[in-house]
Design goal:
The protein has helices at residues 2-15, 43-46, 62-75, 87-96, 111-119, 150-157, 188-196, 215-223, 234-239, 260-264, 281-284, 287-304, 314-325; strands spanning 51-57, 79-83, 102-105, 124-133, 135-139, 148-149, 179-182, 209-211, 228-232, 244-246, 249-250, 255-256, 272-280. It is α/β, with parallel strands linked by helices. A five-stranded mixed sheet has the order 2-1-3-13-4. Strands 8-7-9-5-10 form a five-stranded mixed sheet. Strands 6-11-12 form a three-stranded mixed sheet. The relative contact order is 0.17. Residues 19-48 are annotated as: Disordered. Belongs to the PstS family.
């Protein structure tokens, strides 16, 4: 019996295999030292992102950026992305002052805005994100306008216009009072319309026109006025197609209505335009900002059509992504 007891003690000691005193089910290691049962934690778990990202600017680009922010937040719930709408010009002012990380823009940055950013120590990259078709809209009850020419739009909206009724626009139109609705001067949409339609003459500013940076206010204005006419991004028209009528535009090749196809192929001219985000390079050094911008460019093409925009070609997104790394 004594011999059997000694054998049992000896066997138990051999079973511990030189564990150094540790007990429990420690995972075995492979030749390279990695744990066999489950491996190491994924890098994204080890480097969990957090922080705040502040974005402001174009109301036209807002739906794109808001969509990207919402989807990004599902993957990175500890990163708070705030998206404001102060217009392209207002966004660039905040951007140049270093108040925001990213500026949404429905037009390229102007030379004086870029200089102001440089003077404020803000270096940046410009990223194209989608195409938009600036859409001219009228009231649902308007049954006389089947299309408008670029010249007629100029006649209606340009500074110094004497148009007061629809009869002043084209012979055969009724003497229905005309009421205009336009984005404000801080809007990139205003700037683009002024350049593409009005030859930079500026938009009239009298008692027949109302300005707002809020596209929803413009929608309500046109929808509530039989003689109303206004313009804003295609996405806002699609969202409110039950309240408004879109106007085909004649620019020399027959009237063309804005659609995803005509915007993409450029036949909706001259009101098709690219949209942008501008990123402060210093902010891009923050891991959460870089991750968000990369996510934006990698995914916005698939989101664009869902919110009423036209995606860029895949090769263009690849070029934009290279700018981030560069």
């Amino acid at each position: 019996m004594l011999a059997m007891a000694m054998l049992l003690v000896f066997a138990a000691a051999c079973g511990n295999g030189g564990s150094g005193g540790e007990t429990g089910n420690a995972p075995a290691e492979s030749a390279n030292g990695a744990q066999e049962n489950g491996g190491s934690k994924p890098a994204e778990e080890e480097a969990k992102l957090s922080g705040d990202i502040v974005i402001d600017g174009s109301s036209t680009v807002y739906p794109l950026t808001e969509a990207a922010a919402e989807e990004f937040n599902k993957e990175h719930p500890d990163v708070r992305v705030t998206v404001g709408v102060s217009g392209t010009g207002g966004g660039f002012e905040k951007f140049a002052a270093g108040e925001i990380a990213i500026a949404d823009a429905s037009r390229p940055i102007k030379d004086e805005e870029a200089q102001k950013a440089k003077d404020g120590g803000v270096d940046f990259i410009e990223l194209s994100v989608a195409y938009d078709g600036l859409s001219v809209v009228i009231n649902k009850e308007n049954d006389w306008v089947d299309h408008l020419t670029v010249e007629e739009l100029n006649k209606i909206f340009a500074a110094g216009s004497t148009v007061k009724t629809w009869a002043d626009v084209r012979e055969g139109f009724p003497a229905e009072p005309i009421t205009l609705f336009s984005p404000g001067a801080d809007s990139g949409t205003y700037d683009y319309f002024n350049e593409a339609i009005l030859d930079k003459k500026g938009i009239r500013n009298d008692d027949l026109i109302s300005f707002s940076e809020d596209d929803n206010t413009l929608v309500q204005g046109v929808a509530g006025n039989k003689g109303g006419i206004g313009y804003f991004g295609f996405a806002y028209f699609e969202e409110n197609a039950d309240k408004l009528k879109v106007v085909p535009i004649e620019a020399g090749n027959g009237p063309v209505e804005p659609t995803l196809e005509t915007i993409k192929d450029g036949s909706y001219s001259p009101l098709s335009r690219p949209l942008y985000i501008y990123v402060n390079k210093a902010e891009l050094e923050r891991p959460e900002v870089k991750a968000f911008v990369q996510y934006y460019i990698d995914n916005i093409g698939s989101m664009a059509a869902e919110v009423g925009y036209v995606p860029l070609p895949d090769e263009q997104y690849a070029k934009e992504a290279a700018k981030i790394e560069g």
